[in-house]
Amino acid sequence: MGKRKRSSSSAVRAEEAGIGELTPAKMKTMDVDQMFDAIGSLVAGEDKDEGENEEMEETEQDAAEDDDQETPTGKSMKDHRLELEKLKQSDPEFYQYLVENDEDLLNFEDDDDEEEPDVEEGDDHEDVELSDEDEKLQADAARDHVQETLLMTTRIVKSLEDGLKKRPREAFASAKKLLRAFRSGCHLTETTKRKKQMRKQLEEDEDTEGISAGSTFGGDVKFASPRVYQRVMTVSVVKLLSFLSSASGRKDGASSSWVPDSSSSRWKKVQPLIKSFALSFVHLLDGVTDGSTARFLLQRAELLLPLLTQVPKQGKSLIQSVLSIWSSESVNVPTRVRAYLLLHSASSTFPDAYLALALKGMIKSYRLEIGNRCNPRSLQRIAFAVNCISELSGVDLSKTYTIAFVSIRDIAIALRVALLSKGKEELGKVYNWEVINLIRLWGKVLSAYPKESGLRPLIYPYAQVTSGLMRLVPSPRNYGLRFHCARYLIDLMGSSGVYIPVASALLEALNCREVLKGKGGAAENARKQKKNGRGEKGNEKRIVKPLDWRCILRVSDNSLKSKHFREGVVNQCLLLLTKFLSTLSRSVALPEVAYPTLAGLRRFGKTVSTPAYSKQARQLVRIAEENCQLVLSLRARLDFGAKGVADYSCIESPLKFTKDKTPLEEFCEKLVQQEIEEAKAFDSGLTEVDELPEQESDSDVEEEDKKMEAAADRPLLLKAGSSGADENGDEEDVVEDLEISDEEIDEDESD
Fold first, then answer.
1. Per-residue confidence band for 454, with pLDDT thresholds at 50, 70 and 90
2. CA of 615: how far to CAs of 78, 547, 571, 612, in Å?
3. Residues 321, 323, 328, 332: is their CA dihedral positive or negative?
4. Does pTM top 0.85 for this prediction?
5. What is the pLDDT of residue 642?
6. Which of 156, 181, 415, 504 is most buried, by the most CB atoms less than 10 A from its CB?
7. DSSP secondary structure string, 516-566?
């Protein structure tokens, strides 16, 4: 169609130019100028036709768009009404179509019919009078920003309390008012800066819509009396919390592991109230200083735990608040116990929501706040924290393994750096109470669950790290740290049944120069004063505070010269060696395992210059040999050997003891009881007098040496194939000469 129109228009323009239609015959008769003129006129005409066609198409599109619009642009509403009236007369059918399908196009407000009067510049605007409905809307809008002050009286509190038992709509209205009063009561003593921070925190929470932020901390609630305030707080903690729990879907007799359904419409309605209540409850718990009130709030918080499983942010705030109470030094013991019971209940009932948070928080608080120092007053607090963490670790051993592995690995890294550098700063990062108490904690945890496969793989790395820490600095000043590490390893050895070599480190401390040869600074001064003729002053007693090894990592240079240091080292070493041998007292391998330890004790008894220390060592050797003889006699009665046994589990405890306790176990109990009495004396503030040591005579020393030689000649092992002795030792023992002589001992030392 377009081509036909274009060709016809070209013919017309050719005729107007006086050349007619261009044909090949005419083009042959034209010269060059005539031909170019004819072609130019034709091209100009075609361009003009194309422009006219484009203008026509644009005009048609504009007209179509104008038809689609409801009202003509650039015209007033009055002109539009006149056009619609003309349309009604000219085309009634189309007008009827508009009435049926687009009635809004024909409806106009009365104000639109009148043109707004022009306002000249400089004229004053008069206030427009508002209707009653407009005034009510403005008042409601203003009330959203500033609420009226609520006066709480006994009658109002009673009505709100009763309103919680009515129909749901009235109950929620009463709950909101009571929550408003509870929030204001929790923040009654807040400073202005703190109020602004808490208000901002509430406004940023999108889920607390419907709870006015201005009423939370704005001081818009007044209490008629302190009694009313106390009543409001009690009703809110007891009745309001119970209402929120039941409104969330909890029924009477529900299980302890019940959690609300977060997808229900009921939960979506009560969730903002629970968030606001939890925020105020945590703030109240943080500010309480009275022990009985804190325990009451902690008891009521158990009802809040299932609700906050669906609100993790507020649940984390509650756990952190309880952790601060548990780790606080100013809190009394009943309150601390109540806080732990809440943490244990939350972790065991809702482990996915609270266990990792509570366990990591307790370990962090223990490391930074409880175990970072040690003194006689904090020992009980440290022991309580260790027992709490150890018990909570048993809820989920897989999570405990991850946390324990990371902690032990960090200690191992710090120990490796200290071993390589030997710098004072690096040693200080390892030789401190924070690390030692962490060693104590994980030793307790591994000892509490020794047979479980979840934590048993950690025994080996723990023993390696603790042994390396024990021998890092072999100076006598650091024997306190060595005794702590040895104690934890021996306890783990006794509970797990895993042999850990500890005796060599203790024998090394027992044979130090200060213990073997030194008599202390007091004795040396007494000798010098007696030699110079001032013996009377040397007999004066000097009051020296004894060493409490429970709270000592290193001692001072002056303490190294005191009698208390020597006695403490000997007593601690012999006590720990007794515990070490006691854990093996029922083992079939006791005679072989105990032999190097007993040889070291005999050597110490010979070389030490103090008869009292020698006597204690000989006593331990005698009791250990008695226990070894008992094991040998029972072992000789067995009708099988290790070579013919396929399953070695049957020989872990094959010996049948007729008595409840072995000789080493009885002796160990006596030493432990003496240690407990000494600890009570330290706790009660008792001190001892550091008297000058008595001078031993040459005859006493010779007599002690003879006794030690006789003790060294005692037989230890039975001959193979001997009948053995019974438990009471009535029969004679046939022995084999396997003792080590003093010459062999000296050769070993020289080697």
1. confident
2. 124, 22, 12, 5
3. positive
4. no
5. 60
6. 181
7. HT---HHHHHHHHHHHTT-HHHHTS-EE-PPP-GGG-S---HHHHTSHHHH
What is the arithmetic mean of pLDDT over 656-673? 88
What gap in Å lies between CA 393 and CA 379, rounded to an integer?
A: 21
CA 8 to chain centre: 93
d(Cα 72, Cα 627) in Å, to the nearest integer? 115
In sequence order, which residues have a C-beta less than 8 Å from that of residue 362 and are 6 or more positions away? 323, 326, 327, 343, 385, 388, 389, 392
Report, as an integer, the average pLDDT of 197-214: 48
- Please list the alpha-helical segments (H only) found in 350-432: 351-365, 379-393, 397-421, 424-430
Alpha-carbon distance of 259 to 681, in angstroms, equals 52
Question: Which residues, including other chains, have CB under 8 Å from residue 727's CB and lie 6 or more apart?
Answer: 630, 633, 634, 657, 658, 659
106 SS3 class? coil
C-alpha distances (whole Å) from 202 to each of 183, 284, 316 are 12, 16, 16
Which residues 6+ apart lie within 8 Å of 203 measured at CB? 213
Q: Which two tokens stand for residue 13?
A: 């323009």
Give one DSSP letter per residue of 376-389, joined into a string. TTTHHHHHHHHHHH
Closest CA to 307 of 259, 341, 351: 259
Nearest to 444 by CA among 494, 481, 395, 396: 494
Check if the beta carbon of residue 390 is closer than 8 Å to that of residue 444: yes
Please tell me the distance from the alpha carbon of residue 480 to that of residue 471, in angstroms, as a whole number. 12
Got the DSSP string for 570-595?
A: HHHHHHHHHHHHHHTTTSTTHHHHHH
Instruction: Tell me the pLDDT band of 200, cut-offs 50, 70 and 90.
Output: low
Q: Which residues are 152's β-sheet partners?
A: 223
- Smallest CA-to-CA distance from 597 within 620, 619, 614 is with 620
CA-nearest of 610, 609, 631, 607 to 716 is 631
- Please tell me the distance from the alpha carbon of residue 733 to that of residue 714, in angstroms, as a whole number: 12
Q: How far apart are the first and last CA of the chain?
A: 121
CA dist., res. 303 & res. 238, Å (int): 10
Supply 292's token pair: 């009985």
Tokens describing residue 229:
């305030």
Smallest CA-to-CA distance from 356 within 410, 420, 402 is with 402
Q: Is 470 helix (H, G, I), strand (E, B) or coil?
A: helix
DSSP 237: I
Question: Tell me, what amino acid is at 516?
Answer: L
Tokens of 8: 């016809």
- CB contact at 8 A, 335 and 291: yes
pLDDT range class, residue 305, cuts 50, 70, 90: very high
> What is the rounded distance in angstroms from the CA atom of residue 510 to the CA atom of residue 517?
12
**pLDDT score of 515 more than 70:** yes
Confirm if 394 and 368 have CB atoms less than 8 A apart: no
Chain-centroid distance, C-alpha 565: 40
Taking a C-beta distance cutoff of 8 angstroms, is the pair 692, 596 a contact?
Answer: no
Instruction: List the one residue out of 356, 281, 289 whose CA is nearest residue 318.
Output: 281
* C-alpha span between 245 and 260 (Å, rounded): 9
Length of the chain: 751
Cα Rg, the chain, nearest whole Å: 48
Helices (H) and strands (E) in the chain, counts: 36, 4
* Number of Cα atoms under 13 Å in the Cβ half of residue 680: 6
